[in-house]
Amino acid sequence: MVENQHPSNLKPTLSTSKLFNQTKHGPHFSLTPTNILPQTPQTPPNSKPCFPSPKPTSLSNKLGIRGFTVSNSVSSVAKPVEINGEGCSSSSSSSNGYDYYDAIIIGSGMGGLVAATQLAVKGAKVLVLEKYVIPGGSSGAYQRDGYTFDVGSSVMFGFSDKGNLNLITQALAAVGCEMEVIPDPSTVHFHLPNNISVRVHREYDDFSKELISKFPHEAEGINKFYGVCWKIYNALNSLELKSLEEPIYLFGQFFQKPLECLTLAYYLPQNAGDIARKFIRDPQLLSFIDAECFIVSTVNALQTPMINASMVLCDRHFGGINYPVGGVGGIAEALAQGLLDKGSNILYKANVTSIILEDEKAIGVRLSDGRKFFSKTVISNATRWDTFGKLLKGKDLPKEEENFQRVYVKAPSFLSIHVGVKAEVLPPGTDCHHFILENDWTKLEDAYGSIFLSIPTTLDSSLAPEGRHILHIFTISCMEDWEGLSQKEYEAKKELVADEIISRLEKKLFPGLKSSIVFKEIGTPKTHRRYLARDSGTYGPMPRSIPKGLLGMPFNTTAVDGLYCVGDSCFPGQGVIAVAFSGVMCAHRVAADIGLEKKSPILDSALLKLLGWFRTLA
Ligand SMILES: NC(=O)c1ccc[n+]([C@@H]2O[C@H](COP(=O)([O-])OP(=O)(O)OC[C@H]3O[C@@H](n4cnc5c(N)ncnc54)[C@H](O)[C@@H]3O)[C@@H](O)[C@H]2O)c1
Ligand SMILES: CC(C)=CCC/C(C)=C/C=C/C(C)=C/C=C/C(C)=C/C=C/C=C(C)/C=C/C=C(C)/C=C/C=C(\C)CCC=C(C)C
């Protein structure tokens, strides 16, 4: 196994005149043998940067393989404001030669990057501060021995060329980028108890025919349940998606599309499992719908908001699942490059340790090396647990956050196994994504109960050396399982648990899998905590019990003036496309608050109060 490479080995590609010298600060994380997911970005030789041309043509900014090499420096003339004490004054503005930002964004996950680029496009001056050495967070990528591994899973929604919900395509287009994608013929292949095997085909009719062939007595129920999903999806897809916390936009949408908005408002507090039970009786089919929801929400259908379920159960057929050529990491890299092209900045190895408040308003951030940066607004892409528990440590938890934590808990983390295998082990026609639950439906949500598997090389062979495939195998795993172990015990446990998971996969899907493995790296919840800076390595928020659909999920504003959150602990929750939406919403709300978009202070305060009250009902 290749061990961590020191980040100083990374070679910035930006012109030195644009670089702000960070070398004296050194890396902000120590490298120990326990690190499993260290990412050493390398730029493929044939990569092309995504530079917006003055008159873009459809092909002008096409990204082939990933087109951005990491800089560990601020990539524009950015100077930290050096002020003693906590405060910021007008003297810290650019008038004294220091940069003062419209927005500082803590973290470059997909939520943070979408918020940043959307704001930059609206004319805001933005600084993204990322703890790690590459952008993307759980949507990043890393390279090892000729393989390009996606950090998270590789199921990409929102990457089509039609409708209003192709938010990844839109986010890239906003900064003048387009990525080449490969359509996935099936979203996921389910391998379930009692040998139920269901392929979710790209064409909805093919999927529904296959499902009905397994449950012919439930044909009507299947059509009705997925029919409601389509009704909701079509309503969503008809709206222009912006901030639901911005009244001028929200009331405008109600005026233009009253039926669609009322449909969404009606389903907002409902969950998929309840709707499914209105039409379906067969317990196995209800369990299948649990599995459909579980893979995108880490909870069963009774706990999955109906709007989110409809979004994923239909978008996979409407826009389809599309894999970006060169890997998922290319999206974050392109957005980061787009941000620079729009005149904003991103700084790597910038570990924010606190949010600076003045008169109870967020006015900047402090890094672990003591540097401070100041801005009109601060947007945190860290989870709400990290934001309020660590970055605002010492402050009383606002009532709104207490309410969030009453309704939501941290979902467990994952054990993640990245392997390279000899290509012959996969039968011809193997699907890209699989979900395996072998014998017992009750194990669906248990740690190590089910197995997720992505084989992105079935779509893009350039991700692995010739004659090899990538398998990304992951399963639920809790932090408690990995604590209190000596280094030796930890390493041994990793091998043991991974070996068991691989054996299960070998038995169920790919005989000979073990002996075909030529490369293996294992990440535990500790790895996710360390490299993604997520409390307990959590995958995201999940409801404590039965939620009222999406009603209890907070939007982007917080109880702290000037502080906003973005990412998966904001509406609508987990998932790359979900956090991209939260980024769009956040940028709109922030832009209105800093005067880059229309705003009505009276309507604002009425709507924010109303939404706050709705959340207390959840
Ligand atoms: N399509 C898929 O299958 C897939 C794959 C991967 C991830 N995901 C989804 O992505 C979601 C997460 O996206 P997200 O945008 O909310 O966040 P994220 O966790 O992916 O990214 C957050 C980023 O913020 C950085 N960060 C955190 N605290 C920091 C600090 N104090 N200082 C500086 N940087 C800091 C982290 O290093 C990380 O890069 C998950 O819910 C998951 O569902 C989905
Ligand atoms: C404002 C009020 C109170 C009322 C107004 C009514 C109104 C106008 C409401 C509008 C609501 C809107 C616009 C809602 C929008 C919701 C959206 C866009 C939701 C999107 C959800 C997306 C989700 C949940 C995506 C999840 C995807 C995931 C997690 C994918 C990853 C998959 C895996 C990790 C597993 C699969 C992997 C394998 C290998 C099987």
Task: Characterize the structure shown.
Residues 1-56 are annotated as: Disordered. Residues 41-55 have a biased composition (Pro residues). Residues 110-590 form the Amine oxidase domain. It is an enzyme of class 5 (isomerase). This protein has helices at residues 110-121, 167-174, 204-214, 219-238, 247-256, 258-267, 272-279, 283-297, 306-320, 329-341, 384-391, 399-407, 487-508, 513-516, 525-532, 576-593, 601-616, and strands at residues 62-63, 101-106, 126-129, 141-144, 147-150, 178-179, 181-183, 186-192, 196-201, 322-324, 345-347, 352-358, 361-367, 372-380, 408-410, 413-422, 433-436, 451-454, 468-477, 517-523, 541-543, 563-565. It is α/β, with parallel strands linked by helices and 618 residues long. The chain has a domain at 96-139 and 326-409 and 544-617: FAD/NAD(P)-binding domain. The strands form 6 sheets. Strands 2, 3, 11, 12, 13, 14 and 22 form a 7-stranded mixed sheet that branches. α5 (247-256) crosses α6 (258-267) and α7 (272-279) packs antiparallel against α8. The protein binds nicotinamide-adenine-dinucleotide and the ligand CC(C)=CCC/C(C)=C/C=C/C(C)=C/C=C/C(C)=C/C=C/C=C(C)/C=C/C=C(C)/C=C/C=C(\C)CCC=C(C)C. The ligand CC(C)=CCC/C(C)=C/C=C/C(C)=C/C=C/C(C)=C/C=C/C=C(C)/C=C/C=C(C)/C=C/C=C(\C)CCC=C(C)C binds next to α6, α8, α9, β17 and β18.
